[in-house]
Write a sequence for this structure.
């Protein structure tokens, strides 16, 4: 070896030795074994996490979730093609089950989960379990596309939504990590009686399908749906109703969200979608101004003694629609009796003591992410309204006045039932969000939104 080659070799050897020492010193601070990518994500600032999750949402989830019928027609529904639901494009003129009761044998064994996970029935009477469920839903359920607003469910709201009369614990179905018992998936069903055109059916309302963001590529949702279906079938029920913001096979009806600003200044500061962008703040404040007080005589909050009168009003009103609930007196009390920050119901009492009108709205709280001023948003959602003596527009204007006085920032309603009679008159704006109604194992002709008399709380 020449002298020059030897010097070069010694120099390279020294550099390598020095580099190894430096690397060893850096490695001393690193944890042993491969780094958990989710732990790395969690260690980042919240704003950075939101940016990454938004990108993942748009990249991995967007193409798989059709939001229009045109997208749905081109989509491959591998799971739903195996289920008893109408096919996209079918022209249905008959009424009845897709699979007759007793036609197929119901599976007796639970569906299998990957070895790292296990099923768990959630006891919603337990405050720690409720807090655990709220945490899962608040961090993973239906985040908006912009990743700026997130649900902030309360324990009281979850109890109201999931524990009506005759609810069954085995229909509050969770998935846990086997090793640490962390809750990572959930789906629920509650019993309900429906009128579907001329047929009265005992069904379940399916809601709160939620899978942890880190597990969404593991196709856990289909297994949750199948296992819940199995448990519902065990009780002799074969039909279900549910809603979704995406197009699945096949919508019974497609409705739209409408929004009415109550706290205009705050919504503009949040750049809330759906606001009239052409208006400046002063003009928007003037445009959305509401009366200071209500004007309907006899308008007051519901009491338990009002339940029979409300039951009668709703029975008369809801029979005019093709899809509507058949409430029992106990269900009227559960769904409509006022609960702080959950459900508000008002009645109009005539001079003879008879109830002539009823209106109810439930509340959702949202967490606002990465805003310098605002951290939360309160939304009121119209549930049921029935009017016989008061003009619907007047009753709903009073409802907006009440909601604003209670501190709500925005009031939302679907264009179902007779709601179109007041939406434009009271300056609601149509949003770009759809709500599609679905029936499981039942076929019947499609219906327009004004023939839908059912509202499923989110």
């Amino acid at each position: 070896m020449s002298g020059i080659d030897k010097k070069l070799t010694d120099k390279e050897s020294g550099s390598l030795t020095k580099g190894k020492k430096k690397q060893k010193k850096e490695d001393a601070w690193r944890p042993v074994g491969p780094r958990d990518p989710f732990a790395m994500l969690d260690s980042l600032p919240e704003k950075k996490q939101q940016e990454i999750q938004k990108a993942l949402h748009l990249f991995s989830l967007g193409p798989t979730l059709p939001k229009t019928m045109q997208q749905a027609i081109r989509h491959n529904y591998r799971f739903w093609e195996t289920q008893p639901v109408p096919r996209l494009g079918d022209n249905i003129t008959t009424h009845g089950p897709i699979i007759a009761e007793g036609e197929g044998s119901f599976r007796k064994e639970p569906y299998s989960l990957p070895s790292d996970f296990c099923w768990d029935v959630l006891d919603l009477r337990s405050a720690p379990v409720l807090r655990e469920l709220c945490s899962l839903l608040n961090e993973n359920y239906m985040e908006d596309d912009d990743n700026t607003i997130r649900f902030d469910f309360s324990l009281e709201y979850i109890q109201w939504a999931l524990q009506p009369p005759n609810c069954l614990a085995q229909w509050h179905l969770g998935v846990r990590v086997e090793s640490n018992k962390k809750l990572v998936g959930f789906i629920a069903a509650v019993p309900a009686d429906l009128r579907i055109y001329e047929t009265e059916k005992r069904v379940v309302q399916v809601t709160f399908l939620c899978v942890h963001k880190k597990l969404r590529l593991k196709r856990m949702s289909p297994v949750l749906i199948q296992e819940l279906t199995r448990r519902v079938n065990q009780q002799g029920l074969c039909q279900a109703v549910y809603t979704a913001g995406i197009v699945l096979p096949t919508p019974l009806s497609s409705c739209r969200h409408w929004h009415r600003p109550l706290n205009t200044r705050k919504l503009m500061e949040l750049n809330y979608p759906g606001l009239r962008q052409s208006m400046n703040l002063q003009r928007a404040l003037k445009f959305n101004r509401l009366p200071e007080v209500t004007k309907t005589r006899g308008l007051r909050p519901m009491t338990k003694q009002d339940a029979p009168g409300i039951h009668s009003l709703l029975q008369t009103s809801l029979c005019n629609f093709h899809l509507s609930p058949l409430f029992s007196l106990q269900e009227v009390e559960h769904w409509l009796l006022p609960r702080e920050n959950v459900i508000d119901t008002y009645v109009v009492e005539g001079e003879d003591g008879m109830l002539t009108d009823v209106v109810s709205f439930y509340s959702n709280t949202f967490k606002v992410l990465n805003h310098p001023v605002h951290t939360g948003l309160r939304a009121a959602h119209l549930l049921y309204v029935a009017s016989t003596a008061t003009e619907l527009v007047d009753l709903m204007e009073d409802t907006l006045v009440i909601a604003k006085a209670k501190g709500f920032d925005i009031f939302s309603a679907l264009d179902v039932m007779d709601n179109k009679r007041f939406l434009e008159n009271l300056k609601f704006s149509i949003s770009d969000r759809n709500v599609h109604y679905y029936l499981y194992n039942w076929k019947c002709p499609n219906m327009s939104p004004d023939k839908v008399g059912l509202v499923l709380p989110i």
